Model the fold of this input.
Amino acid sequence: MTSQSNSYTVKQTGNRIDLIGARIPIFYEVSGIELPELQDHSFAVWHLLPSCMKTGQSIHIDGPVDPDVIKNAMEFSRIWELWEPTKFRQVLITSSEKSATPIENCQKREKQLACFSGGIDSTHMLLNMGIQEKRGTILGIHGMEIHYDNKQQFEELANWTKPLLEYLNYDRVTVRTNASKIGGGHHSWALSLAGNAYLFRQLFEECVFASDFTAAEDFVSFPYGSNSISNLLLAGRDYRLRSLCNQFSRVDKLEPITKDHIALQTVTFCKQKHLRPQNCGICDKCIRTKIMMIVASGHIAEEIFIDPTLNRKLVHSLNFSDKIEQTFFISTCQLAREKNVLSKIPGIEEKFYAIQNPLSTRIRRFFRRYK
Done:
């Protein structure tokens, strides 16, 4: 840890929050709920942590912060320095005062807020939690998947997913923010969620979000910013960000989605972000999802893709330089093998063989070129 430190302050005007002291002005605009006067500025710690972990710069919040958040955020940075010492540093975090608890503030809180983007993971999580007896609340973050200035596209996404939320009995709360400008990187995903979720500490007891991987897949994708180890640290004294559904693979998640007409028509996952909420059908994520659908349900839900085709050329075009993509592919191939459906997916066995036998594959390619 270094001694160099920046001091940050929080200014609130109704549902508008400004974080002052970062290298660029950071704002948060909340809609769908009325924010009380914030008596805890822990959200700023989580959003500042990704960039400070890269530099080792300390964080001082000139305002109230949950002491357990300070302890856990410092431990978060310590773990990532342990994992990747050439990239990250442990961060010293302080505040000018401790925040009070909602009980001390006599604030009655709802039980749960749920992060929801419309993707496969969060759609499955809501389906898995079932129809809410009492109206629930989801949190949509405008500034992660869709640029914070693109209001039209985010509105299209909200309209696209609205039928699922009505079906499952949820209201939507939205945070529009440019906080991604001080975040970013493979270590920052869960921290970005926490930075937004902690704005609602006085209104909810916890915020839940969907795990990206199973616990076993964590070891292959390691280190990634959402994992079963460091996710446990996104907690304060009486509020936490909690991940769900890490017992389900991506194929497992697709099975109930493909069986539910409303969920299937509202799910969005395309890597071509300018097309979202539509799904192009030819990017890596769309190709991978088509393969997973065959394994999960025996067929591709063609109606949800702009281009519903799947052939050997598309399967062979998948790029596994990103180990996360390779993790999903291997897991899918294993399930396809167990279900005896590998032969239904053109080109998948050759692609799987190339991963398992990289040297043999390179030699064969060399002789093909020589010949």
